[in-house]
Amino acid sequence: MARRKKTTKKVTKKKKVVKKTIKKRAKRKKGVSKKITKKVLEKNINFSKGDDVVQYGAINGQIALQTVRGMRDILPGDQAYWQQIRKIFEKRSVEYGFSRIDTPVIELESLFIKAIGENTDIINSELYTFSAKSGDKVALRPELTASAVRAYIQHGMTILPKPIKLFSMGPVYRYDKPGEGRYREFHQAEFNIFGEDDAILDAQIMQIAHRVLKSLGIKNIQFRVNSIGTIESRKEYLKLLKAYFRSKKSKLPLKYRDMIDTNPMRIFDVKDDKCMQVCAGAPQAIDYLDKESREHFKNLLEYLDELELIYTIDPHLVRGLDYYTRTVFEISVADEHGAKHSLGGGGRFDELVELFGGEPTPAIGFAFGIDRLITEMKRVKAKKYKESQPRVFLAQLGSLAKKKSLQLFADIEQSGILVAESFGRGTLKAQLRYASKLGVDLTLIIGQQEALDDTVIVKNMITGTQETITKKKAVAFVKKNLKEISKLVKRK
Ligand code: HAM
Predict the structure, then answer these.
(1) Which residue's CA is minimally distant from atom 8 of ligand 1?
(2) pTM (2 d.p.)
(3) Which protein residue's CA is at the shortest distance from atom 29 of ligand 1?
(4) Fold of domain 392-491
(5) What CATH topology corresponds to 76-230+290-379?
(6) How confident is the model at residue 12 (pLDDT cuts 50, 70, 90)?
């Protein structure tokens, strides 16, 4: 007995040694392959010196097969969300009387500098700029508002009856630090109303934002609102604000101190604990509004109460773009842990048209970040767009049948019936399996004999019955049968 125990022990020990050796070898191998990969990468590393390519994935010659940093492909699997977004935006914009406008992705750099302001993050560090072959300094649009205002003036919309409501949607570019929900190429959907300064339009713009989110299945919507007055009325306030920040200069981190003189209101936007502590005691724009702006803000709040939109007044809300006057607002949602996710924002830009050389024209608008809307839709498991399902499937067997089915497919599709096929799938069995997976009502089959006779078998997938008819009559026959099936399904 004791002897057997000894042998078992010996065997286990041997097993352990073998295992260790295998592990050691594997480790050594891994090390070698790591070294080789590193060598290959180092050899190819020269193709990009900036931070645009973060990981060195598959390398084919000098091309890194990956998107540049902060940019993404929108793959087929996500398209149902994008389609749902497009559908809802199209519907809501028409309902509220907006006309669609699309502007170029590239504009003169000066357009954005003038609109957004020189001392803002977007202009200082996030604008993608380059010289065109003409020598013009151009930029990828970091937002849509400046272009909408440019187009409004350029196309003489000033003379049209007011208000003018414009809806826009498309990609925008900011050389921001990529992170969760923050990309360098992202997409915005934007609503702007030109020509009215009544606070009822501010309320309507916020109502549209709310309505869009509800239609997308997004809940727990919160608005933060503030009024920052007109550019004229802000002058006095800015003096006070500068004086306050100067008195607290030593408490602000070094890198933000310059902002005291260049753009003190932007300090409210900085997400830094020390800045936030200093900001907590800062004078607030809302306390220094001119009489009209105060009245305007009061009216807005009354309209919001009437609409029963949930909002909080945030006296520190200033927004990161310099063109805003009076109303500013941000839209966010709270998740199950209470964390807030910002989805959109906007406000009045009553002085921007005039700043661009147009007639004085009050305006209000906002933009949603579409990428963030989609993240939220996924989080709350909101409804995606559902493609219409085909009701007919066309199966074929043999090369002659394949040729004949090409034209029949086109005839059915042109008659307005959604039809599917799988010309590439070999056996009839595989094709029929695919047809039943699609859940079609009718399957048309052209086999070798049918191809010679110019006929087609029509199989009713609900009753299981089938009939052979001439190819000429196929479309009319299919239409009639589909109608009958629809009636039958309704009756059930
Ligand atoms: P914004 O707040 O700069 O406003 O951008 C609007 C929305 O775009 C944000 O609320 C956010 O959802 C999304 N967004 C911003 N940066 C990023 C990013 N790096 N990655 C992903 N999403 C982002 C404007 O752009 C104004 N033009 C809105 C407006 C229209 N004001 C008046 N009319």
Answers:
(1) 369
(2) 0.82
(3) 366
(4) Rossmann fold (3.40.50)
(5) BirA Bifunctional Protein; domain 2 (3.30.930)
(6) low
